[in-house]
Amino acid sequence: MAVQVLIPTPLQKFTNNEASVELEAGSVAALVEALEGRFPGIRARLCDDSGKLRRFLNIYVNSEDIRFLDNETTSLSDGDEVSIVPAVAGG
Amino acid sequence: MTATLSRSALSGPTFTGLRCKECGEPYASGARHVCEDVCFGPLEVVYDYEAIKSRVSRATIEAGPASIWRYREFLPIEGDPIDVGTGFTPLLKAGNLARRLGLKSLYIKNDGVNMPTLSFKDRVVSVALTRARELGFTTVSCASTGNLANSTAAIAAHAGLECCVFIPSDLELGKVLGTLVYNPTLMAVKGNYDQVNRLCSEVANTYGWGFVNINLRPYYSEGSKTLGYEVIEQLGWQLPDHIVAPLASGSLFTKIRKGFDEFIKVGLVDEKRVRFSGAQAEGCSPIAQAFAEGRDFITPVKPNTIAKSIAIGNPADGPYAIDIANATQGTIAAVNDTEIIEGIKLLAETEGVFTETAGGTTIAVLKKLVEQGKIDPEETTVAYITGNGLKTTEAVADAIGQPYTIEAQLDSFRQAWDQAQSKHAAAATA
Fold first, then answer.
1. Judged by CB atoms within 8 Å, which residues 53-82 of A form the interface with B?
2. Count of domains in chain B?
């Protein structure tokens, strides 16, 4: 399952300044592991000490927030686009 | 040429950097908004309160301009501000509405007449664009539910900055027109605000622009503190007992609190607990839902309400808003679209203030909380009205009266006047 992952600027120091990377993963949880495998240290930025995705990070699969899907267990298919976006204020 | 040196050049900025609100990690004061080295929490500006305390007094503030820049020592800028007359809006003693609701002392903080674009967003944008210019940005941008787009486009025009703003494509016409007239590049995105925000985060990654609510957010959000300072000053250097404000991202709520706390900290006002209550529209009430269920985390929702200016389904500062409501024995409540329209009409009919849907939400929640006994009639209460009704006339067009169309003849007038009188009498007895 090759998926495209959009990396926010603050995390690009882990990805050799790549804004987009392609990885194999069948779920969001597996994607976090795949990212860690390729870019050691990035998991600790994405997840808190208990291993949960940090509450100020939003993850989208094909533009849909994973909290409207199945959170970390959201499955991924070939060609999916996953976006990692820090929370922002506004209005 | 010392006579032309600005105040700030003589005394220097009062802020020293940024710090993560969650974990405390320090950062230099550049264009960044999240704790990128540790936890992705939001960054906040750090001030030297001793320096502020040594420079300000009630007298120095009162001698300042009638704008937010009378509080410039509390704002994160280095040099001279972009001053478009933002702030120092009326604090209206709302006697009629107070009587209608059964309150003793009610005030309306009316940012519907803020300058230049008639919403509280002019405060945050004035600060953000001043800082954007200091940080060397030549293009500024934002993701907006409407009011922020109006404000960013207008103040960018005044400051001579390039501007590209993003809005959901289904916004009210007045808000679209009220942006386009300043001739920015306007992107109407097919999606809701949360989708617009996600897109903007991705654009911010790749374009070197100053996004007021993204990479300039720590500075931007500080502008809302002035809504706290002004109320203190306008109440005669006193804190109110209870405030009611609309909740969208939750940022405004937290910054009004910060404004109150800072004036206490530097000795401008005596310490007192102020209760904080927040208002949401039922069709987009993730913070009210979490509060009602006793949760400290937000479950996002898909907005479906006429209150578009506060329709943020994934509110970044929601958890902090809940903390404040709990800590101050306030509450967070939601009202439906019909109640929102009634709220707009109630404020207009009793106080002569025409607000938009966010203000209707606030007034409807105020009414509800009084009815539920959650606001004590003895409390000095301030309701924050953050936007102007002329921008969202669609919301009330079908819910208000019609004109009497008459001939230019006395008879025709008389007939219509009699009709109007009997309608009035019928309404009074209904």
1. 54-58, 60, 63, 65, 67-68
2. 2
